[in-house]
Amino acid sequence: MRTTIEAMAEGDVEAIAGLRLAAFFEGTDRTLDEDMAGLRGLIAGDGSETAFVARDRGRPIGSCLLVRSEISSPHDFSPWLAGLIVEDGYRGSGVGTALVRTVEARAVSAGIGKLYLYTWQARGFYEALGWTAVETFEQDGAPMLLMSREL
């Protein structure tokens, strides 16, 4: 495996949107086209928000975002590490960690001192990377955890 982490490009959008749709938006009204439009907005933006992609031999296998606001967030914090997704066959190989560290490094280079994220199932993963649980709450009838990390 030869994985690289780079800024997301137009050629990555459809594959990453497909991964995101299956992982985050199954059972919702969100469409592939809507997610693709959101990713395109990030890569065409002013640079204050960033989308990164992990590639294995040029093929997109994962992604992570640095965004100002999180979708329907009940918290008024900013900025966020969001949308970490790694294709199933690459999980446990360090790709997710590399994506998180890339977003953290980008935040530091932008003068950001603290990031936030939401998770439930990946609490242990993020804690191992130095993230701290801030608050548990319920969103749309499901448990959720707010985490933060001082950079």
Describe it for me?
This protein is an alpha+beta fold. Helices cover 30% and strands 34% of the residues. It contains four helices and seven strands; from the N terminus they run E-H-H-E-E-E-H-E-H-E-E. The protein is globular, with a radius of gyration of 15 Å.
SSE map:
Layout: E1 3-7, H1 13-24, H2 32-43, E2 50-56, E3 59-67, E4 80-86, H3 95-109, E5 114-119, H4 123-128, E6 132-139, E7 142-150
Helix pairs in contact: 1-2
Overall geometry: globular
In round numbers, the mean pLDDT is 94
How large is the count of helical segments? 4
Strand order of the largest sheet: 1-2-3-4
Radius of gyration: 15 Å
Broad structural category: alpha+beta
Stretches where pLDDT is under 50 for at least 5 consecutive residues are: none
Largest sheet data: 4 strands, antiparallel
What is the CA-CA span between the terminal residues? 29 Å
Q: What is the helix/strand order?
A: EHHEEEHEHEE
The portion of residues assigned to helices is 25-40%
Can you count the beta strands?
Answer: 7
Strand content: 25-35%
Question: Which descriptors apply to this entry?
Answer:
single chain, alpha+beta, 151 residues, 4-stranded antiparallel β-sheet, 3-stranded antiparallel β-sheet
